[in-house]
Amino acid sequence: MIMDNLPLGPLLGVLALLMLWAGLLTSVEAAHHQLKAMRAASRSDKAAPLPELAFNLNSLILGNTLIRVLITVIATLIAANYWFYNGPTVAWLGTVSVMLVFAEYIPRRLANRHPVSTLLLGNGVLRIPMKIVWPLAYVFNVLAKTLLRPFLSRQVQQQEKNFEDDVQKTNRHDIVHEHYPRASVLSGIRALDSITVNDILIPRNEVDGVN
């Protein structure tokens, strides 16, 4: 078999490394949803701004799926080499057990306890890899929307389109403010030309009468 020429130690090391990456991706996704809920619950302007995901969520989902499938394939090959016909069953049970603990439960608990630090870690480590796989994630996302389109009503399709337009506008707005912070100041100065008397609040003690 092909696996006879491959040492077990490096394969287990690769599995451990892939498991760590899967746990990181899961924790970043959980932290993203946690901060999103916190941001929606806190409407106060005095609250400190919470960090946001620096890349597309679909890239994160695609990367996590690819890593988990690769873990399953390697584990199945190792188990088939040692247990032959019972190998797939052993690999299935072992992979499910280890993945649930180290790539699901523990990362999600850590993300719920420390969402800000988890998301900042993910933005620093995963920014470039997730942007590399984004075109492939975009293709799968479009494919999924195309398959679901016949089952959605026109109202739902319009709501999804409006939501995507709002997200794109928000992203462009954030990019402008990130790279051109003076743009908001200049737009505010230009807005002074369109201000009328009715837009200015007049104190009551200065009002002589109502016309």
TrEMBL record:
Domain CNNM transmembrane: where?
4-190
Superkingdom of this entry's organism?
A: Bacteria
- Which keywords annotate this record? Membrane, Transmembrane, Transmembrane helix
- List cellular component terms (GO): membrane
| Segments traversing the membrane | 54-78, 90-108
Q: What's the short name of a Pfam family annotated to this entry?
A: CNNM
Protein name (Swiss-Prot/TrEMBL): CBS domain-containing protein
